[in-house]
Amino acid sequence: METPLVLHAERLTKRYGRRTALTDCDLMIPRGHVVGLVGPNGAGKSTLLQLACGLLAPTAGTLSVLGSRPAANAAHLARVGFVAQDTPVYASFSIADHLRMGAWLNPSWDPALAKRRIAEVGLDPAQKAGRLSGGQRAQLALAIAAAKRPELLIFDEPAAALDPLARKGFMRGLVEFVGELGASAVLSSHLLSDVEQVCDYLVVLCDSRIQIAGPVRDLLASHHRIAGDPARMAAAVEVIWAERGRALVRGDAAARDGAAARDAEPVTLEELVLAYMSRAAGAGAAPRASAAVAR
């Protein structure tokens, strides 16, 4: 029996005129994960998430979300909750107005969940959204997205502009909602601390291409940091990044020339992400390195 997929992309490409934001992206993400989507600014993260929400159409390739074309119909829209980077709200609307609008637009709206969350984070339903702080706006947007009771929550760097305390509160709320709803989630963030805190699945997107993707635990277990000459590494080992006699490799750490490298060491999530980002940028890449996608 095949594992249901929350997102499935095949040769997904998106161009804006002469600029290519995504190139031939293949990606298969099973349901039940909190996915961290990381990469440098301009890598195509927001484009991928907007495609997943149906806000953009692909230039080429295919993309399915929860088994259907993104935003295929009203029923499919109700299955996806989206919180954009600037956590948009209507300044002249009160918090209560936002909740009433959410109930009107979403057939599966859970008013009890929305009211409970607003109370938990100390928001006054009568307050105008235009007078809220950045952290409060983010909490309001999160409450509205979750009260749809979606199967998938998508977050496009929603905590990027928040101070550390507000960001911590937002991330805590995200984890609580994912658990309560039994939903999957995709979180785009340039802060690896956020990804480490809440995500169990990683997608690295650089230079408009998927560099690697898979469960965080499996990715960390399959990569090692070693010292030695990359040219003498065994064929079973893929050198992701190398510089000054040290390398980050993927594969069987034992299947290498013992004379060329000392004992392998585990890598951190930050080292893993930076190695793939460096390789995509052409910095410190080894001759044998090639694009890799783990599923």
Automatic annotation (TrEMBL):
Xref: PROSITE patterns: ABC_TRANSPORTER_2
Sequence ranges assigned to domain ABC transporter in this UniProt record: 7-232
Gene3D superfamilies in the cross-refs: P-loop containing nucleotide triphosphate hydrolases
InterPro entries for this protein: AAA+_ATPase, ABC_transporter-like_ATP-bd, P-loop_NTPase
Keyword Protein biosynthesis attributed: no
Annotated Pfam families: ABC_tran
Alphabetized UniProt keyword annotations: ATP-binding, Nucleotide-binding, Transport
Keyword NADP applies: no
GO terms of molecular function: ATP binding
Family of this protein: Belongs to the ABC transporter superfamily.
Name assigned to this protein: ABC transporter ATP-binding protein
